[in-house]
Amino acid sequence: MNSLSDIYLDHFGYGLGDQKFTIEETCRKGLTFSSLEVLADSGFEAHHVCSENQSAYELAKTAVDQIATSFSAKSLSSIDAIMYATCLTRNGNMGSWQSFVETKDVKSLMDFPASHLQSDFDMDKAFVIGVNQTACTSLLGAIRLAKSLLQTERQYQDILCLTADRFPNGAIYEQGYNLISDGAAGCVVSKSKGPFRIIDCHQISNGAMAQANDDETAGFYFNYTHRLIQEILSNNNLDIRDVAWVVPQNTNIKAWQIMSSLLNISFEQVLMPTRTSIGHCISGDNIINLKKCNESGAFKRGDLILMPMAGFGLNWSCILIEKEN
């Protein structure tokens, strides 16, 4: 019998930019900081980029269409809340800056995609919360907030957590030595039993490093990721030997070759099935990789899984889950 405080992850979906490019094509256009050789050696092969007129909101709708199909036993109209996360704050507004310039009316700066999502998918009973200012950790932060809300508000049952971001046209598609994809990803956080039970969520922030450059970010990555994982395990009286799998963001393959050694786990336990084909999908990597791994039958009942993510700000977030069914 489930505990009343048990919270689950279920009903996963994602959407990607409508243009797929190889790293050769992107490097030829001058849209990376690193050379082709460096990115190829890092384990990246291709990524997805939005065409000029494809918006972050269109990515969000694609992800939610998939979630709605999986959620069909109920209906998204039963969703109690929407946690809409963005890494780039500009993706949290669908209004036009030019309209503001012309009219001086700030309403155009408050045209929120979460409100559109609520209306477009008939989630009339849901209230909306925007989550940002934590960069690539935004979706994990939204899941953490949803878990806490469900455990404190008895009347709520299901919360939709979603992230959707695209880089501005002309942007460099590399950050922190990682190849970037435009994309959206989401899931339902629920009191109803699902394939993954959330055991705990943990986050560390270092605001003093808010404007760290790529080299500084890479240098801090190992120390803070190691600390993040050790702390979430300690908080739950667990040891790294209790963990079956790590499902991280899609990052430079060398980073997790080093990180797995520091954690004293096998690199074979680190699952990034979409790294080569998608690259770093901003805030959505963990959920996309979790969905792919689950569909492939990688997990067995009782497996403990860590989902760590690092983001600018600087922020580090991790969710510890258990495979249920």
Structure description:
- The chain is α+β, with helices and mostly antiparallel strands and 325 residues long.
- The protein folds into 2 domains: 8-190, Thiolase/Chalcone synthase (Peroxisomal Thiolase, Chain A, domain 1, 3-Layer(aba) Sandwich); 196-323, Thiolase/Chalcone synthase (Peroxisomal Thiolase, Chain A, domain 1).
- Helices cover 32% and strands 23% of the residues.
- The protein is built from 10 helices and 13 strands.
- The chain has helices spanning 23-28, 36-41, 56-70, 97-103, 113-120, 138-152, 214-235, 253-263, 275-278, 285-295, and strands at 8-16, 19-22, 46-49, 81-85, 127-131, 158-165, 174-175, 178-179, 183-190, 196-205, 245-246, 304-311, 315-323.
- The strands form 3 sheets. It has a 9-stranded mixed β-sheet, sandwiched between helices. The chain has a two-stranded antiparallel ribbon with strand order 2-3.
- The chain is globular, with a radius of gyration of 19 Å.
- The relative contact order is 0.19.
